[in-house]
């Protein structure tokens, strides 16, 4: 058997060397349970990869006996590429220079690294259902986000028989109070999203659903829970009619089958399970992992960082990670004790940034209670070797001043001669070596361009300022606006309506299934498109003008008349053809990176319509059967265009996993998880104005900086957990809201490699303002730790 030192040598030769703590995790015995607590940039993926390769080459575990999961498709792809890249490298080196015994050589020669199973938990579950199905059965079809959202909207919220549950006053009140943030932006799309979150939690928290449904405390609440239950039932029925499962059902199905002794071929081979990003695991997933671990003698490695848990709103339960060691025994039922391993050498950031992040994590005394005990500080393995800039702060009196100065800073750094600090150091992207604006990112709690009152926020004002620079710098922020309110989206929607249903017949026929608001939105879109076609309307941020050929195209479509004489309009046309024909005339949707994302939403929603509607997104033109023709178009309105108009189909984070190099990306902090940039700008307080106009005790935007009330995820936890095996949380919901804000800024502050710039208005400056804000040094006891000793350099 190859020795561990022989393996390390091979790893070294391909340029990889675990540090001492990483080595503890890599070297641990095959069946040792491991609890790896890994701070930002400390080589989680690298360590997991090295451990898997050690299992194969040293312990001679069959690759197909190894299962590794991570949180996003992108992270899973990165893990796979490292396993294969490093794995083949090690294999080759061992065969050429490893001095292997005959037996070891036979093993190394035949082993196929490619058989290691890696993926997200969902992709693995899907794979299991596909690869290990009972003879004669088909695996279920996976309903993606767009399909699930559409079915919940059309059949859950509207109701298959036109119940219009979204208008039910009891349900409305119940949902709105669970949401807890008032009625701004409260429409059928946001209701559907919340109902889907509850559906997910029902599974994620392994709820006793019927007990929950019956547990309302007032007459109205009991009624509301009943309507909700019916909505979820209808949704489930629609999925099952189509032989579909959504993500929650997928995991539940696999868990049930595992518990019943299923997937035997797979579980007989399984030897080790490894899980990345375990801090964002939910109870359903924990149950799955424990169930899998039971099949391999408890050989479970989990890796994560409680400080970076951000997905409470999707049912993540950070305590499952923090308390892993005890849960492994008490819930998993294993006798072994997991070995804790702490990874704290941060390879990403400069010493100054690492120091700042360390202090930040320790700033709030209360927060320490929920951090993993014994967690060491991050340290810099290459301290002193690199250029180190101070943390920077840019705080201004007004939003306009801030945006102007920030745009000028960004211009200097990326297009000009650099930004010079008083000590002579210059901050500048390295354009000769491919550096560009994409080396910078602006992280905000929300990338929205306008606030609830309709006023411009930093992403909007900065965008305009950047375009006004000597060399204009475009931004990339596809989530800046409500999808349905974007000009090009409305125009494309309107053109589709003009082609599909110019006289509104199909809309009238579909009438009951469409809300009044939806029909009025359709009307606005169609008018916009018609005026634009005539040249009498401009569409915001659309430079293209309509030409006669497009006018022709739309007329022919609307009349279902081919433009070649003698030709016959086809009986069946797939709507995707229409979509791409129209897009041809709108370069904004293929040349512009934001436009490409918008087009992807249309394409995905059309894909969903194709899967869920009886007409498979076909437009039928049959003069002998006008009703059928109308119904086929009606289905496109219901399943393709209405979800867009109703705010239910939108840009989700998965649609934008690559960022253009020549634009400034504006990201939510959630989206930045797992990413790194040379220079990161964090908006810590551009939304918060201190004004004498505000009455004392006015807490504008408090939930984003110093919560006075719990947020939606905390409300949902309190509402649902009493009926979950997880039981009611002991920690106060406001404390949980604070904990989450500290985690959010911990993630933001740990993204940069070289430069961290905090920006905000003077009211948030620790010395100049009094606005309570956990991102600028305040703890929850209202003490400002940064006052008088500001940890950044003001520019
Ligand atoms: N032992 C090591 N020696 C040198 N460099 C290392 C070592 N371990 C990791 N690195 C480097 O550190 C960087 C971060 O590693 P990796 O991508 O594995 O981190 P991560 O912990 O998964 O990141 P995060 O969780 O913050 O997204 C990479 O550039 C990687 O090559």
From TrEMBL:
Pfam families: UvrD-helicase. Keywords: ATP-binding, Helicase, Hydrolase, Nucleotide-binding. The keyword Cell membrane does not apply. ATP binds at residues 38-45. SUPFAM superfamilies: P-loop containing nucleoside triphosphate hydrolases. GO terms for molecular function: helicase activity. Signal peptide: none annotated. This is DNA 3'-5' helicase II. InterPro entries: DNA_helicase_UvrD/REP, P-loop_NTPase, UvrD-like_ATP-bd. Residues 17-350 form the UvrD-like helicase ATP-binding domain. The keyword Flavoprotein does not apply.
